[in-house]
Design brief:
The protein has 161 residues and is α+β, with helices and mostly antiparallel strands. The chain contains three helices and nine strands, in the order ααβββββββββα.
């Protein structure tokens, strides 16, 4: 008797279609509130601004899907990288082009992460043993003016036109 009752409950549960109003579900409302409060990163947040972690610096200028980008890695004593180029945003992926160097980085709204390995062409942008591999930066500011002031270790502006 219990087996029949259990089977009937399972079959009845399979008959229900998922709710089409997931945008108004409690979970969706909670997620939206967390994004507004800054607790959860918004992957649709604009890229423009200044980014940094330790001695790694990055600037992005331009509000559209295609923006100017500059990156500086400075480990001192001729150990560093500096590059300027273009960033194209495709969802959470950033397609970065620095001349012949092409990198696909990940973006989550608060952090940009370069892959652990980059093309050999990217090494031409670096001196000594420095590399653009695994560069990770956190958002410091969304201000265009701060992004425009970023300079390489040699004083070259990286995001100004």
């Amino acid at each position: 008797m219990r087996a029949i009752l259990l089977l009937a409950l399972v079959v009845a549960g399979c008959d229900r279609a998922p709710s089409a109003t997931t945008g108004d579900s409690a979970g969706a409302r909670l997620e939206a509130a967390a994004e507004r409060a800054g607790i959860v990163s918004d992957p649709d947040a604009p890229l423009e601004g200044a980014w940094a972690r330790d001695t790694d610096r990055l600037c992005v200028v331009g509000p559209g899907k295609t923006s100017r980008i500059g990156v500086s890695v400075d480990y001192g004593e001729d150990q560093g990288c500096a590059a300027t180029g273009v960033a194209e945003r495709e969802g959470t992926a950033l397609r970065l082009t620095f001349g012949d160097c092409r990198i696909v980085a990940q973006y989550d709204g608060d952090r940009i992460v370069f892959p652990a390995t980059v093309a050999d062409a990217c090494q031409a942008l670096c001196t000594g043993r420095a590399t653009l591999a695994a560069v990770t930066v956190d958002r410091q500011s969304m201000a265009r003016s701060e992004a425009l002031t970023l300079r390489s270790s040699k004083g070259t502006r990286l995001c100004s036109s």
